[in-house]
Design goal:
The N and C termini lie far apart (69 Å). The protein has four domains: 2-163, Alpha Horseshoe (Serine Threonine Protein Phosphatase 5, Tetratricopeptide repeat); 171-441, TolB, C-terminal domain (Neuraminidase), CATH 2.120.10; 445-535, Immunoglobulin-like, CATH 2.60.40.2190; 537-652, 60s Ribosomal Protein L30, Chain: A (2-Layer Sandwich), CATH 3.30.1330.60. 25% of the residues lie in helices and 30% in strands. It is built from eleven helices and 32 strands.
């Protein structure tokens, strides 16, 4: 709605110029619509006060003028303009309406001004009527045709949204989080156990360079045993200073944090984006991300993708509108390849508060440039099969209304959303609310794999590389590293996928696993896994869990190639390593047939490794049939475990 407010102010300023020009012509007759001498005198005094920005005195005299003449249209317009200048839209509407009734042809643009103010307050039917009146008026300013038609579309849209509301049942997070100050939602941890938000309140101290009396700081809360949020605590001096901080986001793996800070000595513009990484249980000192993300412009509202490789942020050029941009994490840890996200998302207005869900495909943001109900509305867009953003969808009424919506975040499972709002019956100012997100607006549900990587012999925590692949497409979903001190890791997992996990570290056998994530939003549960990496030792074995064959066949399935390339990487990383590839079956069928099939499968793996550049001197293969079971062959599950391909170290 910012653009409509600007137009409204521009138009009312044009009225004041009209008055001032008349007022300057004291040598001639000042022609007012009133014949009342007292009304004219009061109007003259009102205009003098108004030109000095003395609105209270101007208001007294202008109201006195309309008491002398209840049809004094210029005085009504001036009163409306005074209230408009003070952003008192309800009062300005009242007096603009009186002007329109007194003489609808005196200043036809008053209907446009009425409509913009009514639209700003959600009076969609009245706004539509006034826009239509101005549209057909002979003196309509044709330069405003596009804005007028856009406003008519918004009025229709607002009326339609109110007739077709979406399901919205907001719940205040309570006094542990919300206070009489303003609270703005920032981030929710992937496991839903931590919330971080910004609290805006009066400063407790005053500094020489203080720019305003408000201070924005970060607070955090964790969930107690009963599932309730505990009393929020102010975060420490790593993040909070005497300046303003806000818009914090933590990567889904909980290892990287980005936030906005303004007017710092190391800043490039008014507000910059900062980042920090976690080492063990402690966050490191935040640093300015620097160019090309931060510039002499205003950068804020940063958000990290699920793999921590893409940064979404907002840039405002000078005093213009703001757009959403992306940046990519480079191999050296810096950010580069900054790109405007494109005109499907970015409009002629301002886009703010991007939130990319951990599904990597659903983007939520606020905008006043796309068709909405007024002010900034909340929208979502999804990536299509080609990786392009689809046309944004308005989240609907009453999530959106005529006011500015600050932003939205959605939990990992996609069923619960959080917003900040100044709803009535809150704790005061803006409070944080949660609500079940209706089905159409939900992202793809994700859960997470969480655990720790240790040495299998010493149980010492290890820093190791891990990768998560979609087995159907062989597409890399996540590539990251466990914590150097604790060995902890967290991997976001999209639902409805068959996935492969690979963990590797030099001088250790790699670890592999595969699992399917299925079920509805309500049934998704996190995976937990403690991974033990075996040091390279002769006779040490691992099962290649992501090597697959067609039933009763030695033909490798395409899903196997990813894992076998990991075997090549292991051999490349350890040049003296030699391995035996062994095939195993269950006990169904004859011993001869099983022995033959297991040997053929082992040879198929051997042949593939040769085809991708592994030396035959490093490889042997053997089929053991059903002679070395690792589980009971009396059940389907046990037989499935016995049908396997193994890797054994035979030389280091």
């Amino acid at each position: 709605m910012r653009q409509f407010r600007i137009i409204s102010l521009f138009l009312t300023i044009s009225l004041s110029l009209l008055y001032c020009q008349s007022h300057a012509q004291r040598g001639g007759d000042i022609k007012y619509s009133t014949k009342s001498r007292k009304a004219r005198k009061s109007m003259e005094r009102a205009m003098t006060f108004f030109s000095d920005n003395n609105y209270p005195e101007a208001l007294i005299d202008a109201k006195q003028a309309v008491e002398y003449d209840t049809n004094f249209v210029e005085a009504y317009l001036l009163i409306g303009q005074i209230y408009d200048s003070q952003r008192k839209s309800s009062q300005s509407i009242k007096y603009y309406r009186k002007a329109a009734i007194a003489n609808p042809d005196f200043y036809p643009m008053v209907f446009y001004i009425l409509g913009t103010n009514e639209l700003e307050l959600g009076y969609y039917e009245s706004a539509l009527n006034d826009f239509r009146t101005y549209l057909v008026h002979p003196k309509m300013d044709r330069r405003l045709s596009k804005l007028l038609n856009d406003n008519i579309d918004r009025a229709y849209f607002g009326m339609d949204q109110k007739k077709n509301p979406v399901d919205f049942k907001p719940m205040n997070l309570g006094s542990a989080i919300n206070t009489p100050a303003d609270e703005y939602i920032n981030t929710i941890s992937t496991d839903n156990q931590l919330i971080i938000f910004t609290r805006k309140q009066k400063k407790n101290i005053r500094t020489k360079n203080q720019r305003n009396s408000q201070e924005e700081d970060f607070y955090k809360s964790i969930k107690g045993e009963n599932g309730e949020w505990l009393v929020a605590r102010r975060m420490g001096p790593l993040f909070n200073t005497n300046g303003n901080e806000g818009a914090m986001n933590i990567s889904p793996d909980q290892n990287m944090m980005v936030f906005t800070a303004c007017y710092r000595k190391d800043g490039f513009g008014r507000c910059d984006i900062y980042q920090t990484k976690k080492k063990g249980k402690k966050w490191q000192i935040p640093i300015n991300i620097g160019p090309p993300v931060n510039t002499g412009n205003w950068e804020s509202n940063a958000c990290l993708s699920s793999d921590g490789k893409t940064l979404y942020f907002v840039r405002r050029m000078g005093r213009g509108n703001s757009d959403i941009y992306t940046a990519e994490l480079q191999d050296d840890g810096s950010w580069g390849n900054v790109q405007n996200i494109g005109d499907v998302i970015n409009s002629d207005g301002s886009e703010m508060t991007p939130f990319i869900h951990p599904d990597g495909k659903t983007l939520y943001f606020s905008s006043d440039g796309h068709l909405g109900m007024g002010g900034k509305d909340l929208f979502y867009s999804r990536k299509d099969a080609n990786g392009n953003w689809t046309e944004p969808v308005n989240l609907g009424y009453p999530i959106n209304d005529y006011k500015n919506q600050m932003g939205i975040i959605v939990n990992a499972s996609g069923d619960l959303a959080y917003i900040s709002s100044d709803m009535e019956a809150g704790k005061g100012g803006y409070d944080i609310y949660s609500f079940p997100l209706y089905m159409d607006a939900r992202p793809i549900a994700v859960t997470y794999l969480k655990g720790v990587i240790r040495d299998a012999k010493t149980h010492k925590p290890l820093q190791a590389n891990f990768e998560l692949y979609d087995l159907k497409t062989n597409k890399l979903i996540v590539k990251s590293t466990s914590d150097a001190i604790t060995g902890d890791f967290l991997v976001v997992i999209p639902s409805g996928s068959k996935l492969a996990l690979n963990v590797n570290r030099k001088s250790y056998l790699f670890y592999s696993d595969q699992f399917a994530v299925e079920g509805e939003y309500s049934s998704i549960k996190p995976f937990t896994k403690n991974i033990l990496l075996n040091p390279l030792e002769v006779n040490r074995k691992i099962i290649l869990k992501n090597v697959f064959f067609a039933t009763a066949s030695y033909q490798l399935e395409n899903e196997s190639f990813l894992e076998l390339r990991k075997v090549k990487e292991l051999l490349d990383l350890n040049p003296n390593l030699k391995i035996e590839i062994s095939g195993h079956t269950d006990n169904i069928g004859s011993n001869e047939a099983n022995a033959k099939l297991s040997k053929e499968r082992a040879k198929a793996v051997y042949d593939f490794l040769l085809s991708i550049g592994v030396s035959s001197e490093k490889l042997k293969y053997r089929g053991y049939g059903s002679t070395k079971p690792i589980s009971d062959n009396s059940s389907d599950k046990g037989r499935a475990l016995n049908r396997r391909t193994e890797l054994k170290i035979i030389g280091i």
